[in-house]
Amino acid sequence: xxxxxxxxxxxxxxxxxxxxxxxxxxxxxxxxxxxxxxxxxxxxxxxxxxxxxxxxxxxxxxxxxxxxxxxxxxxxxxxxxxxxxxxxxxxxxxxxxxxxxxxxxxxxxxxxxxxxxxxxxxxxxxxxxxxxxxxxxxxxxxxxxxxxxxxxxxxxxxxxxxxxxxxxxxxxxxxxxxxxxxxxxxxxxxxxxxxxxxxxxxxxxxxxxxxxxxxxxxxxxxxxxxxxxxxxxxxxxxx
Amino acid sequence: xxxxxxxxxxxxxxxxxxxxxxxxxxxxxxxxxxxxxxxxxxxxxxxxxxxxxxxxxxxxxxxxxxxxxxx
Lengths: 239, 71
What we know:
The complex is a heterodimer. By secondary structure, chain A is mainly α. Chain A has one domain. Chain A contains 7 helices and no strands. Chain B contains 1 helix and no strands.
């Protein structure tokens, strides 16, 4: 595992892996979408239950991507590892996109079920804060010309943002919220009807694999971009 | 059995799925385009660098510098 921290070994290992992940994500998304529209409508929520199959995976990956960003930021900051910095940077955009999707699809689910597009409850607000952390991270990186300084400053922000993850996760337990508590794999909860498990789990896996494909591809691109910058500087020096 | 009739919630279900699909497609296309761009640029620069190094080696072979091996 730690051998992959060497960029050359990382490139050699992920080269054949990324096309497999892209293919697997496409198949899972296709199957998941098909399953999502073959299950019966919920007796209470009607067809809006189908929003769950895109909303929950997006929210899960929004959190997961930030965990990846935060852990990578830690290694980049403590060990000054270039690959960890590239990994943190690569997780930001897909993570922000998944979080934005969670907010958007949640709003579309909330209007018919709660009668409102938005409410400042703990879960929704903490997810919005998560999205703002992503935006802040990307803006900070873009605002500093020196890439090393930008990486360090952004890594600090990335680490600070980790505090928000348990707040998002447990907000529905710590405060009274309009948002329902976790109903999947939670002991004692009413749970998700088994009929919805196949599309739900397939879409969750599809989003997970797609994120991995996006992340690894972005890390590989970042490694190449840095190599290009180094070569440009060297060739300019020689000329 | 495929059920695409979302009445009366079509105005909520389809935008949720449509925007999700659009965002995932944009993310994918962006990642692939950027990957190809930097891969191409790196290959070009590496070729330029090896040409430059080759020319330097050839120059040193034609007119060797005083490296202690000459009589």
